[in-house]
Amino acid sequence: MGPVPPLPKDFDDVDNNDVLQFQEFNLNPLELSGTAHLLIPHRHRDATRTFSLRLQPTAKSELGTSLKTFQDHTFLKYGPNQAHQSPLHLSLQGNIPIECLDDYRRKWQHADEFVAIVHEEVKRLLSPLATQQHDFPQPAFGGYVAKDKPTRSVAMRVAVPRVYLELANAIDNRLTDDLSIKLDHPCAPVTSASSAIQRMPLAYNVLHSISKQDAQLIKDSANSLIDVKKWCAGKEISWELSLQEILLQSQSMGETQQVTVIQTWPLEPIGFKQALAKAEHDKRKSMALVPFTPKPALPKPHTKSFSLIPASIRVKLSILSTWFR
Q1: ω before 150 within 30° of 0 (cis)?
Q2: What range defines the domain where residue 104 resides?
Q3: Residue 201's domain is classified under what CATH number?
Q4: pLDDT tens digits along 211-223
Q5: Choice among 148-157, 183-192, 200-209 with the minimum mean pLDDT
Q6: What's the pLDDT tens digit per position in 22-43?
Q7: Cα 276 from chain centroid?
């Protein structure tokens, strides 16, 4: 290795402004503007519980069984779509997410309070209908419709009686006032009309819109496969109100979501009263299962015992008592 070459004579005269200084490298502050800071799916499920209040056809009615037949037929013939992710229903409030509290001992207190609110409002608004002579107001059939916007879809038009819209709005107001929870999708406003038209989706796909030809064929299948005769004639109770918790919502097309039914109220007086009685029984039973933890007994104050008999005589008396045993 040869000798190190000497520095140039004018080295000290080099302009420092031409030399890149290290302090000029500044790191930008960390910004969570993407999705990296969001909870991963299983962490999100641990931190949030999702509920849904639905008007749905009863499973054993002709309407319910024919809707199941229709779903199976369209799944096999036209492929899965987002309507296959759950049994066909009308959602009164959309999905209702309830986040857990920071305090572990009260982690799901808001979820329990939400379920209690639903029970209270159902009892308050629908119980008077169970005492009347006529049946509960039933949703009415309004035909089928195919829409092109915002995405091509096929739906059943259903006239929802006003009382169920009032129920949804009452629950929404109590969520805001009592629990400070604001829903992303507000409820349909209650008007002076006796009912409001809502659409029950039969087929739709937000990401990949179904073709216009398939939409027309699915609509024709609905006309031929879905049996609405008894429903329209009032010869059977075809609907029920159901509060459910969505345990798992799959991202795969056509995978049915996993739910647990918390409470179901048939829309007829006898079944509704039985559902209320069952809810009250379950509530009392759950309260009875809470273990009773008695308060610890307070220590008794120490009192010094004394006697007027001298100690020597007490000893003699104890000896004499053993002789006469």
Answers
A1: yes
A2: 41-284
A3: 3.90.1140.10
A4: 999 999 999 999 9
A5: 183-192
A6: 555 555 555 544 444 444 455 5
A7: 21
Contact 198, 162 (CB under 8 A): no
pLDDT exceeds cutoff 70 at 151 = yes
Strands 48-57 vs 90-91: parallel, antiparallel or unpaired: antiparallel
Q: Report the domain count for the chain.
A: 1
Residue with tokens 């519980």: 49
The burial of 81, by beta-carbon neighbours within 10 Å (0-12 exposed, 13-18 middle, 19 or more buried), is given as: buried
Q: Are strands 140-147 and 90-91 parallel, antiparallel or unpaired?
A: unpaired
The long-range contacts involving 144-152, CB below 8 angstroms and separated by at least 24 positions, are 144/202, 144/219, 144/222, 144/223, 145/199, 146/215, 146/216, 146/219, 148/212, 151/204, 151/205, 151/206, 151/209, 152/204, 152/209, 152/210, 152/211, 152/212, 152/215
| pLDDT attached to residue 308 | 56
Token digits for 167? 């129920």
Gyration radius of the chain over CA positions: 35
Name which of 217, 287, 211 is nearest 73 in CA terms: 217
